[in-house]
Design goal:
This protein is mostly helical. Among the domains are: 2-110, Tyrosine recombinase, N-terminal domain (DNA polymerase, domain 1); 132-263, hpI Integrase, Chain A, CATH 1.10.443. It is built from 16 helices and three strands. It has a three-stranded antiparallel beta sheet. Helix 3 (27-45) crosses helix 5 (80-99), helix 6 (129-138) packs antiparallel against helix 7 (149-162) and helix 12 (285-292) packs across helix 13. Pfam families: Phage_int_SAM_1, Phage_integrase. Belongs to the 'phage' integrase family.
């Protein structure tokens, strides 16, 4: 173990990055790993009690004590999100070293870290983008090899009008849609085993009915029994994760809105659009929490806070507000000391 403990940190960092590269991360992700690992290693090497060149820093110098001091120094000028990302990089690095038998344990559990930053909602960009998407997909596009607009529209509508996650869509059965006309609802088996019921408006109910009718014509009445999987491929087999993601991506391409879909949130952008529009239309955090199946109220509150910030930014960008600001200068108002009169008004 002694030889391994004397291995140089820089060498091990490069080995870790090579191992990570097999997962095909983006170049930006690998650069972030390298930047965070080198920044903390440099702070350990430059510590006043035992300074040494970074190139000679051995892995045994990275103890819980030296790492705590380095992270305290690192955190001072940086945002919590940057500190959390660096902590995660080092935690992954030590997990790799433990698995390779280089170190006996991971010291990062003894290093404090900020709470993970709440991810920002990533709805579709553009006020009318959801409507444009639905309109395009509802058309029978003969350029497709196997067009099935009723099915494609049902997938998008469930995500946009009921806020379902990818895994929730795949788990739906035909019998998950229940209730009398005008009181229809979808029973959802959600994240963490949490069950919820989402109301279905007549418009979505009609889209689902059209899809099931088209499915019955394709595969027979037995294909739409209550225990059957709701979403199927062109062969009548249950849709899989990759197939559903490809379907949604093809819908974006057909609608010509690829540039309005946030990076890293392809299908999830539809759920975020549902939640964002709820907040814009006045739903409170508790209502959003129940409809989306969030585990905590904080996740739902985030949509309201982001929406309020976006609304304020839109108002701030209004040219009339900027023109009004120019009128409030002392030269424009003649207010060199007449604050009392203005207050009376």
């Amino acid at each position: 173990m002694q030889d391994k403990e004397d291995e140089r940190v820089l060498t091990l960092i490069e080995e870790f990055l090579v191992a990570r590269a097999t997962r095909k991360p983006s170049p930006h992700t690998l650069q972030a790993y390298r930047r965070d690992l080198l920044a903390i290693a440099r702070l350990v090497a430059e510590a006043p009690d035992a300074p040494l060149p970074l190139a000679e820093l051995p892995i045994h110098a990275l103890s819980a004590r030296t790492l705590r001091a380095a992270f305290a120094h690192f955190a001072t000028p940086r945002a919590a999100a940057s500190v959390y990302r660096a902590w995660s990089s080092w935690n992954s690095f030590f997990t790799f070293l433990v698995a390779d038998g280089i170190v006996a344990g991971n010291p990062m559990s003894a290093v404090d870290r900020p709470s993970p930053p709440a991810p920002l909602p990533k709805p579709l960009r553009g006020e009318d983008t959801p409507e444009q998407l639905l309109t395009a997909v509802a058309r029978d596009d003969q350029r497709q090899r196997h067009p099935w607009p009723e099915r494609d529209l049902a997938v998008l509508a469930l995500a946009l009008c009921a806020g379902l996650r990818l895994s929730e869509l795949l788990a739906l059965q035909v019998g998950s849609i229940a209730g009398r006309p005008g009181e229809r609802r979808v029973h959802v088996s959600g994240k963490g085993g949490r069950h919820r019921v989402v109301p279905i408006e007549p418009e979505l109910d009609g889209v689902l009915a059209n899809y099931l009718d088209s499915r019955g014509r394709r595969f027979g009445a037995r294909s739409v029994r209550p225990e059957s999987v709701l979403l199927v491929d062109r062969h009548g087999e249950p849709l899989r994760r990759g197939g559903l993601q490809y379907l949604v991506d093809s819908c974006y391409r057909r609608a010509g809105i690829n540039e309005r879909v946030p990076q890293g949130a392809r299908l999830h952008a539809l759920r975020h659009t549902f939640a964002t529009r709820l907040a814009e239309d006045g739903a409170n955090a508790s209502e959003i929490m129940r409809l989306l199946g969030h585990a905590s109220l904080a996740s739902s509150q985030h949509y309201i806070e982001v929406t309020a910030g976006q609304q304020r930014a839109a108002v701030r960008a209004n040219r009339t507000n900027r023109a009004l600001g120019s009128l409030l200068s002392p030269a424009a108002t003649g207010d060199e000391g007449g604050g009392a009169d203005a207050a009376q008004l």
